[in-house]
Write a structure and sequence with these properties.
It is a single chain. The protein has 261 residues and is mainly β. It has two domains: 122 residues, RlpA-like domain (Barwin-like endoglucanases), CATH 2.40.40.10; 87 residues, Expansin, cellulose-binding-like domain (Immunoglobulin-like, Sandwich). 4% of the residues lie in helices and 36% in strands. Keywords: Cell wall, Cell wall biogenesis/degradation, Membrane, Secreted, Signal. Belongs to the expansin family. Expansin A subfamily. Pfam families: DPBB_1, Expansin_C.
Length: 261
């Protein structure tokens, strides 16, 4: 019987472009690079140093420690969140142009988008997360790596960067016999998943739809069938993970593919 939590035969950081083995392969498609241009924005923080308030965010990742994201996370403003499509994207951020707030020679931090910073249209000032502001609400731990706690809000320079994740893409299964919800996480490369297809053993590929964050849903009845996935990130790179989930799977279990981007 397969390990219900993970397939840990190959737990190494690697690029999908080199993978063509063990039931996983890169599907050749035209792809584009992520935009790594530096942009101006602002940043605040929420929660305390424990990061408890950053858990269970709008991307659906749940316990960020268990899923490998830890405290290196941020909630994105409306302009950046893109209705959840940006969940999983990675950013490099540095504090700029605020000598009273920025920590000297602090360098930059690297975070993953795991939550949404909602707008507040009742306010007329400090409207950091309202459109069209490009804003990062960081964990307190990450904010205080680049700025003094008392600063509260800081000007930043930020850019997209590739995500580097250990081990394979992971899939957490939820739902009921008539409806399957799959959380896709621990995604390398561009990080933000743009499309997911699923195939039950003996069947055809079925298009899944984004339900919320990085939770993808289908009404296909797949209980008792082994499952394969095709995952496409925002840079149009696609990886096919065959037989990731054995036929005796149960709701609530997490499985790991043998490749990553």
């Amino acid at each position: 019987m397969a390990n219900p939590s993970n397939n840990l035969l190959l737990c190494l950081p690697f690029l999908a472009i080199f993978v063509q083995a063990m039931g996983s392969r890169l599907v050749p498609l035209g792809y584009q690079s992520i935009d790594t241009t530096w942009y101006d924005g602002r940043a605040t923080f929420y929660g305390d140093m424990s990061g408890a308030e950053t858990m269970q965010g709008a991307c659906g990742y749940g316990n960020l420690f268990e899923q490998g994201y830890g405290l290196r996370t941020a909630a994105l403003s409306t302009a950046l969140f893109n209705n959840g499509a940006a969940c999983g994207a990675c950013f490099e951020i540095r504090c700029v142009d605020a000598p009273q707030s920025c920590i000297p020679r602090a360098g930059s931090i690297k975070i993953t988008a795991t939550n949404f910073c909602p707008p507040n249209y009742t306010k007329t000032h400090d409207i950091w997360c309202n459109p069209p502001q490009r804003h990062f609400d960081l964990s307190q731990y990450m904010f205080t790596r680049i700025a003094r706690y008392r600063a509260g809000v800081i000007p930043v320079s930020y850019r997209r960067i590739p995500c580097w994740k250990r081990c394979g893409v992971k899939f957490k299964l939820a739902g009921n016999p008539y409806w399957l919800l799959v959380l896709v996480f621990n995604v390398g490369g561009a990080g933000d998943v743009a499309d997911v297809k699923i195939r039950g053993s003996g069947g055809e590929w079925v298009q899944m739809r984004r339900n919320w964050g990085q939770n993808w849903a289908t009404g296909e009845r797949l209980v008792g069938r082994s499952l394969s996935f095709r995952v496409t990130t925002s840079d149009s790179k696609t990886i096919q993970l065959d037989g990731v989930v054995p036929g005796d799977w149960r709701f609530g279990q997490t499985f790991e593919g043998r490749a990553n981007f």
